[in-house]
Amino acid sequence: MYKDWQKTLISPATAIIEAMRLIDKIALQILLVTDEDKTLLGTITDGDIRRAILRGESLEDPIENVMNTRPTAFTADESVEDMLVAMRLLKISKVPVVDHKNRVVGLEILDELLRPSPKDNPVVLMAGGLGSRLGSLTKNCPKPLLHVGNKPVLQTILENFMAYGFHNFYFSVNYKAKMIEEYFGDGTKWGVSIKYIHEDKRMGTAGALSLLPENPKMPFFVMNGDILTKVNFLQLLDFHGEHRAAATMCAFKYDLQIPYGVLQIDKHRLVEIDEKPVQNFFVNAGIYILEPKTLNHIPADTFFDMPSLYETLIETKQEVAVFPLREYWLDIGHTSDFERAQVDFKNFFNQEEKESPEAALITKVPKKP
């Protein structure tokens, strides 16, 4: 929300020339036209004024003659995600925010919505695996450095976290660790901090956390370094906090089709044939959030996988939450997954997300007073 939004409020009786001066002063190219109760009557932009001049309007005329009387506006309870979709779809960068009585309560600016606030929560990315299931692809290159699209998969993961304001990273490395360190360095190139956890032997996705140089002071992410996803990490962090969980695991809904007709039998009688049914399972998506206290359950210098940690937390009666993914997710485990990732990258990561015309329905267009 633009903090000085009240400076953009202007009366409909204000002369066009005064509106020009105010637009130049606040340097936002938009003013919000309201009555004495701050009810939104319209907007006036630099473009509106220029078009009025071309039509021969007098600069002494009131702005109500030239203002946009049906501006797009958001309501105060709309989410940032919905606002971003609407602004991109409608190609507008500044939108007034109103309450249920159409009174102005703020001004949203696209650039500010796109600028994430810094998030200090550490992010641990597991990048030490051999990638043996990918065969010759990982013979001379660690799996996290394999290019999906135009960049290594680990860089895509890093930049996805960065897009939500995260900047404090640890890379857990083993196989061909030097190649990863040489590529990413200390993170300066990306404007973040990257430190390295060196596994001298296989430690597992949880065991490697015992090598952290210091215990985190806040909830932290752990994610496998071979996953492509479009999950909203801020929503995941909020979900974890709302449920007061010691640990949260992301789950992906996996459909498995039985390739045969499944028989329902009562003793010797055939009751029903369910032809090629589809069974649904929630599978571990390899993305986690942990509270610092969970590190007390990880043995030192021992192989310990993340499922074992979660089983321990469940056995000790701690709150363990599951965050179901609705977004795109792919674990690059096999050659076929790697090939699929090349196609998916073009659709999900290499362009702005496609937006549907239905997104325009979230905007509120005030009626003429």
Overview of the molecule:
The strands form 6 sheets. The protein has a 7-stranded mixed beta sheet. It has a 3-stranded mixed beta sheet with strand order 1-2-3. A 3-stranded mixed beta sheet has the order 4-5-6. It has 369 residues and is of the alpha/beta class. β2 (30-34) and β3 (40-45) form a beta hairpin. It has helices at residues 16-26, 46-54, 80-90, 110-114, 153-162, 177-184, 204-207, 233-242, 306-315, 335-348; strands at 9-10, 30-34, 40-45, 74-75, 94-98, 104-109, 123-126, 147-148, 151-152, 168-173, 193-198, 220-224, 227-229, 247-257, 261-266, 269-275, 278-290, 320-324, 329-331. The protein has 2 domains: 5-115, CBS-domain, CATH 3.10.580.10; 123-348, Alpha-Beta Complex (Spore Coat Polysaccharide Biosynthesis Protein SpsA, Chain A).
Question: What is this structure, in a nutshell?
Answer:
By secondary structure, this protein is an alpha/beta fold. Helices cover 25% and strands 27% of the residues.
Q: What structural class do the secondary elements suggest?
A: alpha/beta
List how many beta strands DSSP finds: 19
CA radius of gyration is 27 Å
> Which shape, going by the Cα principal axes?
elongated
- Counting structural domains, the number is 2
Order of helices and strands: EHEEHEHEEHEEEHEHEHEEHEEEEHEEH
Q: End-to-end span in angstroms?
A: 25 Å
* Name of the CATH homologous superfamily of the largest domain: Spore Coat Polysaccharide Biosynthesis Protein SpsA, Chain A
Helical proportion? 10-25%
The biggest beta sheet, please?
Answer: 7 strands, mixed
| Spatial ordering of strands, largest sheet | 11-10-7-12-17-14-18
